[in-house]
Amino acid sequence: MTRQKIEIKKIDNITARQVTFSKRRRGLFKKALELSTLCDAEIALLVFSATGKLFEYSSSSMQQVIERYSFHSENPDKLVCQPSLDALEHERNRLDSLKAELEEKTTEIRRMKGEELQELSLEEIKELEKMVEAGLSRVAELKDQRVVKEISSLKKKGVQLLEENRRLKQMTNVFEVPTDVVQHVRPVESTNICSSNNHHDHYSSDTTLKLGLPFPN
């Protein structure tokens, strides 16, 4: 026996209307609870009866849900799209893959350092030996390149220092006084001093007081 379809329209009988409101309200809140539990949804319901009485349901905090709704209403461009289940599953698989790769690389580095070698077979040890030898060869090659580069840099600095030394030596030669000039200047100074002394002596003799008659020559 099929259920009779109820026509959706306003119930004129006040008593029947109140009974229907009470039943439907409880059913609505029950469905909201089921939806929140099954789908981890955040739900808030506000219902006012015909008499103005408030009924409410919230899966968490009514105030938080209202604030969240207000924020999204005022900032529609900042709505954050929730990732789908497929996207979450893809990210989870990607994370697991990265973790496995990290663990593998960490183990490989430890074995190259000579650790955790007990579980390796002979073939794995030989393969590890080849990897270590290849790595040492690359390190030695890089070291030789760095040494050659450092030697070249030191040679270049040496040439620059020699050039600077030569330039300073030339500047020193410009300011040196020739030896013959020094020898020529010194006698002149001595002669001037002697001449000055003789002149002083002559002047002193002229001012000497002489007593008596002069003797004939």
TrEMBL record:
Domain MADS-box: 1-61
UniProt key word Oxidoreductase: no
Pfam families: K-box, SRF-TF
Coiled-coil residue spans: 85-171
GO terms under cellular component: nucleus
UniProt organism field: Morus alba var. alba
Protein name from the UniProt record: Short vegetative phase
Cited InterPro entries: MADS-box/MEF2_TF, MEF2-like_N, TF_Kbox, TF_MADSbox, TF_MADSbox_sf
Domain K-box: 88-180
Molecular function GO labels: DNA-binding transcription factor activity; protein dimerization activity; RNA polymerase II transcription regulatory region sequence-specific DNA binding
Keywords assigned by UniProt, alphabetized: Coiled coil, Differentiation, DNA-binding, Nucleus, Transcription, Transcription regulation
SUPFAM superfamilies: SRF-like
